[in-house]
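Structure ticket #2291
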Amino acid sequence: MDPILLAIFSMLFTGVSDFLYRRARIVGASPKFFLLLQAIFFNTTNYCYIAFQGSLKVSFLTVFFGICCGFLGYFSILLFLKSLGHGYASINAPIFRLSFIITAVLAITFLNEILTFGKFLAISLAVFSIIALSKGLKNGHISSGMILPLLLATLLNGLVGFLYKIAISSGSTPTGILVIQGAVFITCSFIIAIRSGTVVKSRSVMIHAPVCGILLGSAFLLLLESLKYGEVSVNFSIVQLSFVLTSVLAIFILREKFRIINFIGIIAAILSVMSFAYL
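Resolution: structure written out below.
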């Protein structure tokens, strides 16, 4: 199948999942219990794929990087999910999904990747986008106490992408990393949810979390399949455009307010992704 088409489907699944995150938080879903139930369905989706594929290779490096990505990924998503209880999905999601720029900066700095004009322009546009969207955050769309956690979530997600890049370059298999990462993620989810006492019956969690788990599990697998046949810089950038779908759904379905500064920020984010992919 066309790798671009696979990346587009991955982007659509991710965008819908981020929208459902916001929808669940509006009705009071507990982030910690939500991630526990989501992790169960995320891992189940991965295991079904591996069983269908019929192969799984796990090395020491796969375990090491999988554990690191599992921890960082869990706390990244937890902070992002918490931020959606206080802010708009049309603002928070674009900021969070621009984490790929952090991955690019780290790769240029530590992996000696070439800083092209396209990458420089993309990074500049991303910084501008975050500043513009942050104006929306300060205009009452999110409590001041959640701005830093959202930025921290973005940073952690960028670190996951950087470690993933190192792992693949070191010979680790994508499915192997995904399995180890998923195991660590669900362990963290279980321990924190139990210790915090948030494992309680919740209609919003029971409805939204399984769907998000399946959507994100499928999105990761589609992305990995697309990377087998296509270019990483192009396919990965396409997936990051998921925030556009999230924003559109949030504005038209959840009736989120949309100001001109928010529109400018989202356009800058789109141009950032396109610059990184094609310039």
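Closing remark: The CA atoms of residues 105 and 123 lie 8 Å apart.
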